[in-house]
Design goal:
By secondary structure, the chain is mostly beta strands. About 0% of the residues lie in helices and about 55% in strands. The strands form three sheets. Strands 1, 6, 8, 9, 10, 11, 12 and 16 form an eight-stranded antiparallel beta sheet that branches. Strands 2-3-17-7-13-14-15 form a seven-stranded antiparallel beta sheet, with no helix packed on it. A two-stranded antiparallel sheet has the order 4-5. The protein is globular and about 55 Å long. The mean pLDDT is about 95.
């Protein structure tokens, strides 16, 4: 599987963006987001996504993000979006001048969760690596493009066949910023097979 920028298609294109072979720029629109039901009770499903479609069972997708986020909840990163009730996103969400939340959301069958860790607000460049092993997935983050740290492993209930994955950016509140995506590539799966405890045997 080879990354080809011409294979990317929009799920809700933003009003302002540019696409070249080297980079993609998105200017976010105010009041755009992805969230379903959990805790807040509201549903937001209007963030733009630019995605590839693939039935490949084993691969890794890597992208470098540069972002000028400056308002609460401004975010950009990687996503896997099948429909409004089944999707995943991973990004850093701006909080204030001191810190931001590096986190991920998995939405299965209409309910979202959110797992986060705090990072310094001065960080404006993050690499993400999104890996697939059949219907299980792993996302990692890096601040130098070399050393990646695992953020999350998850199962996607509708992720066994063809999936859509790629990038997204949004501004849930009354703000707008520029997100730049570059160095995109698809490689062999960097999330290696587990060699520890053997799977349970069916009885």
């Amino acid at each position: 599987m080879k990354f080809n920028i011409d294979d990317l298609t929009w799920t809700r294109a933003p009003k302002s963006y540019s696409i070249t072979q080297d980079k993609i720029e998105i200017i976010t629109q105010p009041h755009t987001d992805l969230w379903q039901r959990t805790y807040y009770k509201f549903r937001n499903d209007n963030a733009p996504l630019l995605q590839l479609q693939s039935a490949e069972k084993y691969f890794s997708f890597v992208v470098k993000t540069n972002f000028a986020s400056k308002h609460r909840f401004d975010q950009c990163g990687v996503a896997m979006y099948l429909d409004s009730d089944n999707w995943f996103k991973c990004s850093s969400e701006y909080e204030n001048e001191e810190f931001q939340h590096l986190g991920s959301v998995v939405t299965n069958n209409g309910y979202s969760d959110w797992a986060t860790t705090v990072i310094d607000a001065s960080i404006k460049t993050i690499w993400y690596r999104f890996s697939r092993r059949e219907d299980d997935f792993c996302v990692e983050a890096s601040f130098d493009g070399i050393n990646y740290n695992q953020m999350r492993i998850f199962h996607f209930w509708k992720g066994a066949d063809t999936i859509n994955f790629g990038i997204y950016a949004c501004s849930p509140e009354d703000s707008s910023f520029k997100a730049t995506f570059s160095d995109m590539e698809i490689t062999e799966c960097k999330w290696l097979a587990h060699t520890g405890q053997a799977p349970d045997k069916d009885i």
